[in-house]
Amino acid sequence: MENLVPAEFLRHICQTDVGEETETRNIPEVRRKPDQILQKLIKKCLNQVKKDKLTSIAIPAIGTGNLRFPRPEVAKIFFEEVTGYLTAHPQSTINDIRFVAYGKDQPTVDAFLGAVQEIKSMVLLPSRKTAPVPVPTVRKNPPTKVPGLSNVTTSEKPDGSLELSLGSRNLTVQIVCADISKETTDLIMHVTSQDFSFNGGVGKALIKAGGDSIVQECKAFGQPALFSTHYTKAGNLSVNQIAHVIGPGKPSYPDLKKCLDNFFDDVMKKNIAKISFSAIGAGAMGFSESQSADLIFDNLSRIAESQNPPLNLARIVIFEKAKFIKFKDATKAYVASGGATSSSPQPGGSSPKPRFFSFGSRRAVSTKTAGGGGDTSIKIYSDDKKMMDQAWAELQRKMNQNIQEKTVKDDIIKKFTDSNLEKLPKLECDHDVKIKVDKGKGMVTIKGYIADVANVQFEIHNIVEDIRNNETSVPSYWTIAPTESVFHKVVLSTGSKEYKDIETAFRKTAANQIVHIERIQNKRIYELYNVKRKGLMDKYGSNFAGKELMLFHGTSRENIEKINAGGLNRSFAGIHATVYGRGVYFARDASYSCNPTYSPMDPQSGHRYMYYAKVLVGDYTNGSSTMIVRPNKNTTDPNETYDSVVDNVASPSIYVLFQDYEYYTEYLITFK
């Protein structure tokens, strides 16, 4: 026989105390103890679901028909029993419980609606993994006074950000979807490891926008103690400083808690008023947004309740929209639970799932939000099936009209680097769309509101064109060279910006007279250099800032033609210096290369020579005279090496490179 009920199991309940032929109202047992009968019945139902390892159950409004139990009492018992069960069994597999009332039995529907109105602000679960009861009403989001935590007010803004005011001193907490490198508070907090890694999302953003000076300042700290906080200047960022909080490479939950506890204690001691940080732990460290919210708000609540705290603004800045939405929901759950701290779960640990109660006639669909915010459940409640079907059809029609999916196809997409891909979450966040990249097929798919899709499609085309333009074999400012020449020399005009920029760099440390500056255009050598450069860009992604420098290299007259034609290579290594390794030497300061040892005078003309070169310094360490190849990093991978060595990691002025084509001698300076 065909199964007409779309359920896996049907459970039939028999109440032995009630005979089929007997009128219920004449049975004292039923009249006296309807609450006990219903309580026992619902408990048995839920225990059976647990035994069957199911995840959902629909329970009709038992007792409101022929048994004539009081409807308000039935609704109250249903909610109380289910709430009690879930509280006692937080790890239960049940995550969907539905109370079903006959649509034409209006008194029963009203009774359940009344019960919902009484408990709609109630938290259904212990800890913070909770969910509010959905009610068939639509409400705005005015500031809400939250019970449980002391003096907490929440307000959701039109742009989706969430603002909280904590404690009697009104510590303001703002949760925003934005780029943390654009912050203007007193400091940005960054959790890192003892080797000051900037490979995480926040670290990459800070170095990309702030510059390599941040890395240099961190290297001066050496190997800091675990759980300590070290402060550096912020480079090109708008904040005053960056707080680098030192944790283990793979921190446990207690490790991360200790990091944050110590940091916030330090903030209090230093009287810092405004700080910015990310959803700490909810990224590469593997913790959930709920665990991150626990750690952060346990500390912020503690500060808010302290006496005269200096901190008055904490901004939690999250770049990815999906993570932003999850963290915002976790914060609401934290506040709703009154801030009761849970145990110390590990990354990837299981957590109780949200439970939802629903009842009445409804249509529902689970769909993905365009902006990557995870599942969104749309539920339509009505006591009129025809009206419900009409509403559902209209919703689908509007969605089909306004939601569009576009695909950008281009072979350049196959060459997207990490730095290109890192731009896409911001586009998703800014335009509320979903972007999917298939590098293998050279394809980007954009889904969302029609106007937003068009805007993002334009941005994707810009990224593609930028890559295409950068792939040209030589820089756009080079002049056309004779086809038969191996290299081509172009004397720069003294009034050009190109000349003045090089002159300025030279004059910073050298007072010698410049005779002229020539641009050396060697297409073959430049293309080889560009291959190395792209490899380094792929390796470091958005952390590439500061990995390529313009440096000086002194030379003699007899070497100029060789270098211009064949490039500066390892055959020139160790001619004048081996103190930091047997490689090719470059100097930060022109004055160093002005030394006659490195740039001897041509006896015929009285001129001297040095190159101003592009150099891929990458990651570096201190050099030594025994080095003949790039040294290994202190890792388990023997192929992971430094890119260069220097005289002083904290403030390098000499750079030594060991492989060909990691530098391009673009300008030749002739001087006296």
TrEMBL record:
- Where would you say this protein principally sits, based on its record? nucleus
Q: Which GO terms describe its molecular function?
A: NAD+ poly-ADP-ribosyltransferase activity; transcription corepressor activity
- List where in the cell it is found: Nucleus
GO BP terms in the entry: negative regulation of gene expression
Identify the Gene3D superfamilies for this entry.
3.90.228.10, Leucine Aminopeptidase, subunit E, domain 1 (3.40.220.10)
- Entry's SUPFAM superfamilies? ADP-ribosylation (SSF56399), Macro domain-like (SSF52949)
Q: Which CDD domains match?
A: TCCD_inducible_PARP_like
Top-rank taxon of the source lineage equals: Eukaryota
- The annotated region (Disordered) lies at 134-160, 338-358
Any one GO CC term of this protein is: nucleus
Q: Where is the composition biased (Low complexity)?
A: 338-354
Per the UniProt record, the source organism is Paramuricea clavata (Red gorgonian)
Q: What is this protein called?
A: Poly [ADP-ribose] polymerase 14-like
List keywords of the entry alphabetically.
Answer: Glycosyltransferase, NAD, Nucleus, Transferase
